[in-house]
Design a protein that fits this description.
The chain has 453 residues and is an alpha/beta fold. The chain has a single domain, classed as Response regulator (Rossmann fold, 3-Layer(aba) Sandwich). It has a four-stranded parallel β-sheet, sandwiched between helices. It has a two-stranded antiparallel sheet with strand order 5-6. α5 runs parallel beside α6 and α12 packs across α16. The protein is globular.
């Protein structure tokens, strides 16, 4: 006969017994009453801040998570961690702190969860490094945990000097700066684009790092099915937040922890979805780090092995035409996963935070078939292999990651322009020292050198 899981596997250390009177007294001061000490304590870890639009929805969503925890019979305790915005940090000294922030986020969540003896967690994040940081913490702690994404930003609309209007995202600002520097765009159009790219809260709308990692989290089984794609302002997110709060308490009841979900097969599912979407190359760095925390043997060879089988289907920015909001309109990440699962390209028998398998979740949702435009049919892909390719050679004997979703050619020849640091490359670009067809090589900016990406 199986043993009933303990709903309070850790918080008994601060609630039970005569000697815990002082700890109970402090918990009473934050709102707990006599009946609450018997409830599992759930950490609600949030990277909410006012520095960037990516995280603005998390304050609202954390409240909904706590409602869900209460409904399920738990007691939520919210705490914060940091977040760094790559969109603001790029191009100056600040970018050297971006990847470091991932480790700080994971360490800070671990610190609070361990010190306060919390039984489980719901982890809320919106920026590039906060998503993997939270998932690393979940894997390291190996407690009941559910991840919840802040959601992406909607496109803006810019009216240009020639009278035309265009939908814009943050990538258009970067492109506009380069075009203006080359004399191809007037400064007033750059200003119009700047004012339109972020019309509200949410992470950058294309298939950049945040949306890629949100999709990967759903494919890993660490977030509720369907929760990655809705925009930050969409009130469906509040429903997912409440459901996430209920889900973590149910995971405790069933004795399911993060590493029960974060198996090798789950990581293969995440890689398959990233490959199909043409996701960010940063996902390679992050998935390897999460796997390391989960004690799963994942290597660059796994990415190439899966990428050779899974075609690139997503016509998504920065190289494509569409954004995450468009993916949401046609069925979200479950639509992509169902197509891959039906083709034998994903594992349907892996466990998820619903307590059910990936296959069972998709059967319940019954997502539509891929639309054929935003997400292509498997028989008519954008590329027949995945959107990320790992290269090996004399320049990078241990491997180099390429976003092959961005081009059709298999070889490229150009003049190498080599710079010992990011600043030198940016200065050369501004001075016209880099021309179309050049190969830009920036040395000493990797995870050890910058530290950078």
């Amino acid at each position: 006969m199986s043993k009933t899981p303990d709903l309070k596997p850790r918080s008994r250390d601060v609630t039970d017994g005569l000697e815990k009177a002082a700890a109970r007294g402090m918990l009473r001061a934050v709102g707990m009453g006599d009946d609450d000490f018997a409830k599992p304590q759930i950490g609600v870890a949030s990277s909410w801040n006012e520095i960037t639009p990516c995280n603005l929805s998390l304050d609202r969503l954390a409240k909904a998570v706590k409602e869900g925890v209460f409904e399920a019979g738990g007691y939520p305790l919210e705490f914060g961690t940091i977040s760094v915005s790559d969109g603001i940090s790029m191009g100056h000294e600040g970018m050297h702190f971006s990847l470091v922030s991932r480790e700080i986020i994971a360490d800070s969540v671990e610190t609070v969860m361990m010190a306060e003896r919390l039984d489980g967690s719901v982890l809320l994040a919106g920026c590039d490094k906060s998503l993997p940081g939270m998932l690393m913490a979940a894997a390291r702690l190996d407690l009941a945990a559910v991840f919840l994404y802040a959601g992406s930003i909607l496109p803006g609309k810019a009216k240009l000097s020639d009278g035309t209007e265009m939908d814009v995202t943050i990538i258009d600002a970067f492109e506009a700066v380069g075009a203006c520097a080359r004399g191809l765009m007037p400064r007033e159009d750059v200003d119009a684009i700047e004012r339109a790219i972020c019309p509200g809260e949410g992470a950058c709308g294309g298939m950049y790092t945040a949306n890629t990692m949100a999709s990967a989290a759903e494919a890993l089984g660490m977030s509720l099915p369907g929760s990655a794609a809705p925009p930050a302002t969409d009130r469906r997110r509040d429903g997912y937040a409440r459901a996430s709060g209920r889900a973590v308490v149910e995971l405790l009841r069933r004795g399911i922890t993060a590493r029960d979900i974060l198996t090798k097969e789950a990581f293969e599912n995440a890689i398959a979805v990233v490959m199909a979407l043409g996701g960010s190359t940063n996902s390679v760095l992050h998935l390897l780090a999460i796997a390391r925390e989960a004690e799963v043997d994942l290597t660059l060879d796994d990415f190439n092995r899966i990428g050779e089988r899974v075609p690139h289907l997503g016509d998504l920015k920065p190289f494509g035409r569409f954004v995450m909001n468009d993916v949401d309109k046609v069925g979200g990440i479950p639509m992509v996963m169902k197509a891959l699962l039906d083709a034998g390209l994903m594992h349907g028998d892996v466990l998820t935070v619903t307590g059910k398998t990936m296959g069972e979740n998709l059967d319940e949702i019954s997502p539509p078939a891929v639309d054929g435009s935003i997400i292509r049919q498997l028989a008519e892909p954008i590329h027949h292999t995945g959107g990320i390719t790992v290269l090996h050679g004399s320049l990078a004997p241990e491997g180099a990651v390429v976003k092959s979703a961005g081009f059709d050619e298999t070889t490229f020849t150009g003049t190498a322009r080599v710079f010992d640091g990011e600043r030198a490359a940016l200065d050369a670009l501004a001075e016209g020292g880099i021309q179309a067809g050049d190969v830009v090589v920036i040395r000493y900016e990797g995870p050890k050198g910058g530290p950078g990406m």
